[in-house]
Amino acid sequence: MTSLSIGAVILLCLGPVSTFGNVVFPFSRGAAQNLSIYSPAVSRFLGPQVDDRLAPVVLPVYVFRGDTCNPDNIDEDVVRDRAIVIAGNRACSYTRRFVSLATKGAAAILDTPASDAQPGRYVHFRDGSESEWHRRHPMLLVELDCGLRAVDVIMKEADSPAGLTVRITIDSNEWIGTFAAWPYQVFVRWVPSIIFGIAGVAGAYFLAVHFLLINDRFVASTVEKRRTWRRRIASVVNGFVSGHLIALAFDTVASATMSVVIGVTGFYSTSNAPAWVTLFFTMQMSGWAFVATFVSSIVWVQRLERIIPRSRRRYCWRLISLLHGDHPRVTIVACLVFFLLEVAIDIWYATWQNWRSRWFPFAPLVAGIFALLELILGANFLVGTGRYLYEVSKTTIDQRDTAVHRVLRRIWWCALLIGLSMMLYVVCGVAMIAFYKWAFRPTGWTVVWGTGSIARATGCLARVFVFQPRPRRRARQQHLTIQGKSDSLRMRSTSEA
């Protein structure tokens, strides 16, 4: 068997390697001789780009095992005029690594993959320090589209006495076209941003009305001489700590924030904000949504208790009482866990710590955890809401045109939307695990994140409208009626005395 055929057999075992790539190793006598790797520029702000139409560059490969985030630890004589494969610390931004090696005279950086994700997704990323110097510097910064075993072959041959030489020509970045295309801009950027925006505006309006209703109840139930500001504020605070207003506040803040973030950043498709902003909000404030869903389910279960005594509950309801708010301390701890888990993951993303780590891909693991939480909390919400709607509809079966049924119909439609959004979000999370290679390629990325973002935004919108307040005029009339009855009773008791 010839060396060429042996190399071909080895190549088939190396994992995904593009056959149309422009990074090759022409003088290799080992397995690397048959590698042809697709390698676009990492960032449009750093170094030469494909549009510069540079001639192919031939360089010796050097495996650097030091700290590329600290230029003081880089020996200029070692990296000068070489193509650097980073095997040491790189838990910092591309810009910082670029500057560290460029100032020491390196000729190129071959950024190796951490997974099977197609390279070039961070083409619009910047940390805010980029300038014309970074863009015009001649050092190449390309990302290799190859499997981890192929990287091991490259590093092994580069460390051998014979060394390894690479010929680099920058490939066009397929992600640039994907990000600019109308499907991505419509379904990943603008539709979720608009839905989040509607939810944020509606939630803010509903919160304002709820506060006015709380104040109206305070005025109706308190004589004028006792309406001090301290009592008024205490009344508002006591009303706010009710579960439905907490859930509404969480969804309002999360929706308004995500509307701005997705609209401005374009979810990886623009450079309008520093990279850490996009990375921090990659999970789209899911922790806030988990808290809102959890608290909302508790609200409906507590309302159901007014209709169904605990003795009539099924055993399975008692078994999962922890999800129903029966233990306040557990409820508070659970909300903190949901919230802090997402914040910790956001910080992990934003500080670049998960970038290029050579262990089980971090993103699919996070997707699986969040999909499981969404399934548990969403199902709990749907069970509580559905049971409440069923019991209330039985008690008002002959009053189809009443305000109660209008409210029930609205809540039913909102619960249906929440159920559909939950199902789509879980499907997207499973897809990122089961079809990892596809989900982190341009087409799969557009489908998964477009569907997931719309599902997340729709769920927030539906939860906001679940707690839509009744019209203030109707509530005020009820308060006046109640106040009038109480005044008449008070006058009657006074006259009898």
TrEMBL record:
Entry protein name: Uncharacterized protein
Naturally occurring in which organism (per UniProt): Plasmodiophora brassicae
Domain of life of the source: Eukaryota
Keyword Phosphoprotein belongs to the record: no
Coiled coil regions in record: none
Residues that span the membrane, as ranges: 194-215, 236-269, 275-301, 330-350, 362-390, 411-435, 447-466
Leader peptide range in chain numbering: 1-19
Keywords: Membrane, Mitochondrion, Signal, Transmembrane, Transmembrane helix
Presence of the UniProt keyword Acetylation in the record: no
